[in-house]
Amino acid sequence: MRHALWLLPLALTLALAIPFFVGGPALLGTLRNFPADLLVLMLGMIGLCWIINACRLRLLLAEHARALSPPQSLATVMATEFAFCATPGGSGGPVTLYGLLVRRGIPAPRATAVFAADQLTDLVFFLVALLLVAVYATVALVDSRLEGLIAVSIGLLSLVLALAWLWLRHTSRFLATSGQWLAWLRLPWRLRFAMARRLLRFRRALLATLGLSRRRLALVFVLCCGHWLLRYSVLYLVVEGLGHDVAWAWTFLVQMLSMAAGQASMLPGGLGGAELTSTAMLTPLIGLSQASVAVLIWRFVTFHFYLLAGAPVFACLFHRQFLGRRLSWRR
User: TM segments (predicted)?
Assistant: First the structure.
């Protein structure tokens, strides 16, 4: 992950250059006229999202939550979000969360299972949200091409959840088949045995996490919905602040498709792909110049602010590890 951080300055430059290149000189004047109190409100919403995710983390940890105090849980969430935004494809997020939880004495399989359960909860929310957006698209007579993208997204999410369920239900068959493939690749039997043992431990920990009380899991899902509804309301508030009236469902769809395109770019935080996709989808509604301003403010709140606020927390949590590596390298 340390080497991936070298891409961050280049990606940030690209993220700032795209809106200014598309919007032109009028962009600065529009930025100065944007309501400052609305910007503060949106930054407060992001802070509330971090608190919600910290509560989700403690609920999923269950009896292991004693290893993390509430401030430590919040710091873990902020550091994880920073790593997710600062690395290609968000690859640093799970590594950071895993490392921080294990350092607090939480078993490695449980740390991995907590991340997996958190991601499964997110997938369920997005599947439900996309189904509701599909109903809105049908009623509002949205462009048929967008209806096709919505259908494809629903199909992909359903496929991922179905594969996860099949893996949990038929783990033994999966291990037998994968073991034959690995044997065909001539991997040592000890390595194959170690991989199978780790998968079984992860499955047991994941089933234990998903086997928590229904009340606890329902609360986790409610907090998940609150987090994503807050975060995906930012673009709607930005457009409202610019003086335009756009349906919330449309801004939700813009953000979902933009972030999917950003992940495909494999740059930190989906830079480049997210900006271009969101600008292209907003331009027919509010114009090119206004769309560029909206995208710039939206990305500042949902990406740059994550980096600015999360970097000091990440540095405080990992400074001893990086310092120890540097001293050993000098020796």
Answer: 41-61, 82-103, 123-142, 149-168, 216-235, 304-323
